[in-house]
Amino acid sequence: MRFRPGPKSYSALTAADDAHELEMADDIGPREKRDSATQALYSKVVETGEIVVGLFGGGARERLGLEGTTPRDPALLVRHVAAVCKALRSVDLGKPRLKGASFSGKAAADDLEALLGDVQAALDDVAREAREAEATLVKKRAAMSSFDTAFSSTATLLSALLNVAGNKELASRIRPSSRRPGQAEGAEEETGEEPKPAPTS
Q: Pick from 116, 107, 72: which is nearest to 88 by CA?
């Protein structure tokens, strides 16, 4: 048997659940933007390393901090590229090995920093969305707790009244479930399912 303790607590629960689901859906855009910006920055810094090696030799890569594996993680990549940009502005690589070729460390740093800014902005957006999702989850859990409390109180009272009236069978079905918050004992008998953990998100 299923019933609701009252429209107020049920409405609050559904509103909190809807708000959390909407907030979770909002996370998709910022995450896609972060991933796209990260890939662009990754490709650019790898390309810069290849250009530097071609123009100045393998030693130039180490002098600029471009040796080793370029990080794929957005936060690590931001720190890595920031260090590379600093080196590009300060390290004198000398003249290119190829006649007529030119290379500006400052210009290369400017290009990387523009893309780095995009990644950092996207990371900030994702972090903000995560905080907002956590806030709606807290409200959802509070609404669930309030609903379960109201349900238990209502079902307990109704079960007691049915017992007094002599309808013990229905009273036992109305009694709040000890295993499923927000449900009556009769609901478990109808479904025959084992209780599932309460949702956390």
A: 107
Are 23 and 132 within 8 A, CB to CB? yes
| CB-based contact 35:119 (threshold 8 Å) | no
| Band of residue 194 on the pLDDT scale cut at 50, 70, 90 | very low
Q: How many CA atoms lie within 13 A of 150 on its CB side?
A: 17
**Rounded CA separation 65/88 (Å):** 9
What gap in Å lies between CA 34 and CA 119, rounded to an integer?
6
pLDDT tier at 53 (50, 70, 90 boundaries)? very high
Residue type at position 77: L
What's the pLDDT tens digit per position in 120-150? 999 999 888 888 777 777 777 776 777 777 7
Q: What is the pLDDT of residue 184?
A: 56
Give the orientation angle of helix 105-164 with respect to helix 74-90, to 10 degrees.
160
What's the angle, vertex CA 101, arms to CA 95 and CA 103, rounded to 5? 65
133-139: long-range pairs with CB below 8 Å, 24+: 133/20, 133/23, 133/24, 133/27, 136/16, 136/19, 136/20, 136/23, 137/20, 137/200, 137/201, 139/16, 139/19, 139/20
